[in-house]
Design a protein that fits this description.
- This is J domain-containing protein.
- Pfam families: DnaJ, DUF4388.
- It comes from Sorangium cellulosum.
- InterPro entries: DnaJ_domain, J_dom_sf, PatA-like_N.
- This protein is of the alpha+beta class.
- Helices cover 49% and strands 10% of the residues.
- Strands 3-2-1-4 form a 4-stranded antiparallel β-sheet. Strands 5-6 form a two-stranded antiparallel sheet.
- It folds into 3 domains: 133 residues, no CATH class; 74 residues, no CATH class; 94 residues, Helix Hairpins (Orthogonal Bundle), CATH 1.10.287.110.
- It contains 16 helices and 6 strands.
Length: 340
């Protein structure tokens, strides 16, 4: 039986053990299968009606919903025969066949790693049409496809939690030899090579926050091992409210409210106007965490709740505008422009 986080590990074990056959993940929705050959991923298919090739193309905006409804039941759920039929109908270009089949397989695999309840079996041979499907991943290794799937699908905060939190420390894993097959970016590989003995939080803070997802993928593959810090057996004493802390909280909220009233999104996030995407995201996440009402406010400062909610609302709006380079540049020009 699968629980939360088990599906990625099951797929990683199949890749790391050089398995061949099909990994079948069955849930109440249906069965999803990933075909493997000596640890490399070949293709993937799903019996879930919402995950057919037609549904995938509709979701991407490449096929009209009415056309998909007309073709439903007449085409295989996935694979080259489904793609060939779409080409014959004029809904898919010949040159688009293999990129589309790969993208659809990646999409199905993404659904697999998100499964939190169901069963898992490694079948010696893929059933039916899947057995004859060609490799849609070209020269990509199974480890490479797995890492990219986790990077795309598992949110950094989820990955961080599954790693045991920022305090968990890393060590070399039993399948360290797979590192060269993961096709990591140069800076990521360098980070991994120096990971032994360091904490997850240290590594994530030293680079992009998204690296938590990469570290999680490598732990699933056993390229790295994670050492969970020992649990605290004695409960800490209850905190004593400090009037100085209360005043500090009020000052912090007042200061941020003043920036909110000023209305400059760069100032609200505390960043320069030439800040990078990474700096913008880091500043936003830090402020969002700092002004989380459940951790910021106490019984003595609960009267600040409406003010804090306003701060959060404006932080979200500022990040929404500044996260996208073109919108950020338009905003910068507008606030710097003088009167005609």
């Amino acid at each position: 039986m699968l629980g939360p986080g088990d599906a990625p590990r099951a797929l990683a074990r199949a890749v790391g053990s050089r398995a061949s056959g099909s990994l079948a993940i069955t849930t109440e929705e249906g069965a999803r299968r990933i075909v493997l050959h000596e640890g490399d991923l070949v293709t993937a298919g799903s019996s879930v009606p919402e995950e057919t090739l037609l549904a995938f193309l509709v979701g991407r905006g490449d096929l009209e919903r009415e056309v998909a409804a007309r073709l439903a039941g007449k085409l295989p759920a996935s694979g080259r025969h489904a793609g060939a039929a779409l080409i014959a109908h004029g809904h898919l270009g010949q040159d688009d066949l293999w990129p589309v089949l790969r993208a659809h397989a990646e999409w199905v695999i993404g659904h697999v790693v998100l499964v939190e309840a169901g069963t898992c079996d490694l079948e010696a041979e893929p059933p039916g049409r899947l057995k004859a499907e060609p490799n849609v991943f070209g020269g990509a290794t199974g480890a490479e496809v797995f890492v990219e799937t986790i990077r795309r699908v598992i949110a950094p905060e989820v990955a961080l939690r599954r790693l045991g939190g920022p305090g968990a420390r890393l060590d070399d894993g039993a399948r360290r030899n797979l590192l060269g097959e993961c096709a990591l970016r140069r800076e990521e590989e360098e980070l991994v090579r120096t990971a032994r003995g360091r904490s997850v939080g240290e590594l994530v803070n030293a680079a992009e926050p998204e690296n938590a997802s990469v570290l999680y993928a490598l732990v699933c593959l056993e390229v790295l091992d994670v050492l969970i810090p020992p649990s605290i057996t004695e409960a800490p004493p209850p905190p004593v409210e400090d009037p100085l802390d209360e005043e500090a909280i009020r000052q912090r909220v007042r200061a941020r409210l003043a920036l909110v009233e000023d209305g400059d999104y760069f100032s609200i996030l505390g960043i320069p106007r030439d800040a990078t995407n990474y700096e913008i995201r880091r500043a936003y996440l830090a402020l969002r965490k700092a002004f989380e009402p459940s951790t910021l406010l106490t019984a003595a400062t609960v009267d600040l709740l409406d003010d804090v909610r306003l701060v959060i609302e404006v932080l979200d709006e500022a990040y929404e505008i500044l996260r996208e380079p073109h919108r950020r540049e338009r905003y910068r020009r507008a606030i710097e422009a003088g009167p005609p």
